[in-house]
Amino acid sequence: MVEFVLERGNYWAIIGLMMIGLYIAFAATNLIKRLVGLGLFQTSIILFYTSLSRISGGTAPILYGKDYKSSYEDKDSHGETAANGAEYAGEAATDAAYGYTNAGLENVYSNPLPHVLMLTAIVVGVATLAVGLAIIVRIREAYGTVESDEIREMDLQVALAEAQDEADELSLASGATRG
Hints:
The chain is 75% helix and 0% strand. The chain contains seven helices and no strands.
């Protein structure tokens, strides 16, 4: 049991970061702290996916060594020149991504797709954070605070004042029609 936990230490750390980020996002009343919590949660998700995609002993998905040389030899045996090797290497990388040419390779290659998706998630996260901060700046200008409890209190007071004004107008209108 102890080995099971220790072998997966990175997953436990990721789960800890995820729970801390989720707690901050829900418990904080300061809007900026909520964004920090969401950022921490998103970072833990990215770490989770990149650690899942790691292959023990795997290298970057670029053919090298005997794999690279054998790709040229295979094409040369079909009567094509080595000048087409760059084109073939691109085809082999594409085929390897779909699992077609994994047999016969000397080296173990990691799948680049999860890393590419996480790069996209990082860009989207930065854009979302920027929009969130811009909205918080606008809220600060309108309300004078970034505390969600104070903002909710101000909105409640405005709603109650508007409801009282409507009730006063209705009572005046009903009194004018009676008289």
